Structure formats: C-alpha cells, structure tokens
C-alpha cells in the first residue's frame, strides 16, 4: 500500500465504478485489504453471493441497509458495522426508500479490485455472474418462482 491520503471525492488511480447501479469508489488497496466507499440508491441490491477467500464488512455512514444471510435478516443503520465472514452467503439490500452511504472492506484483497474494474457498467446479470466467478465471488442461483 502506498502512503498518503485518498481525498473524499477521489478514488485510487482515479477509479469510480458503477456496479449493479451502485457507485463504488476505491479508497485503499493492499495485499491484505481492499476498502471502498459505496453509494447505494434506494431499491438497489447486491444479490446473495459468497466470498470463499475473504471476510467482508460494511460500516454504514448514512441511511439503512438490510443484510440477508440465507433467510436470516439484519438491519444496519448509521454507525453500525456488518460482519460477513468468508464462506457465508449474504445479500445486501437498500429497501429503505432513501440513499445509503457506507464503507465496505474485504480482507485479504485477493481479486476484488480487479473484479470491480471488469464489472464497471455491466448490466447483463449472466455476465456479472460469469465475471464474478472468475474473481472468487460466487452468486447463488435465484430462488425458484412460486
């Protein structure tokens, strides 16, 4: 990791990504960790998925998020920290009706920074799933229609 300050309006190397309708701005990258600021508009979500090689966390700054661990639902608001251990399926939902802002992190960094470069602007769900699997993130199949 290079020493210095990543300014509030800046991302590492000028990066700013649109991933599933959310804005991700990378703030810190080393072999051991990757941290990014995220803005999640109302009614956006990250479908349930698994990081088999990384622990992940979220610190909510503004708004509220719902985190689902295969049917076990938790709500997080400003100042709360969400812990998502490696190997545990989780989905992230903004069902609050308002924008949410938070800081995400993973440890170790592994391939997630490179994944976000690949996913910037991708709108096709099958392509998102394909690219993610190549970068150690596995999305769960959608539930059967009732």
Structural class by sheet pairing and helices: mainly beta
Report, as a whole number of angstroms, the end-to-end distance.
48 Å
Strand content: 35-45%
**Rg, Å, rounded:** 15 Å
Flag low-confidence runs: none
Order of secondary-structure elements: EEEEEEEEEEHHE
Q: Number of helix segments?
A: 2
Q: What would CATH call the class? A: Mainly Beta
Mean pLDDT: 94
Give your account of this protein's structure.
The protein is built from two helices and eleven strands; from the N terminus they run E-E-E-E-E-E-E-E-E-E-H-H-E. The radius of gyration is 15 Å and the shape is globular. The longest helix has 10 residues, at 125-134. The relative contact order is 0.23. The protein has a single domain (12-135), classed as Jelly Rolls (Sandwich). It has 146 residues and is mainly β. The strands form two sheets. A six-stranded antiparallel β-sheet has the order 1-2-3-10-5-8, covered by helices on one side. The chain has a five-stranded antiparallel β-sheet with strand order 7-6-9-4-11. Helix content is 12%, strand content 42%.
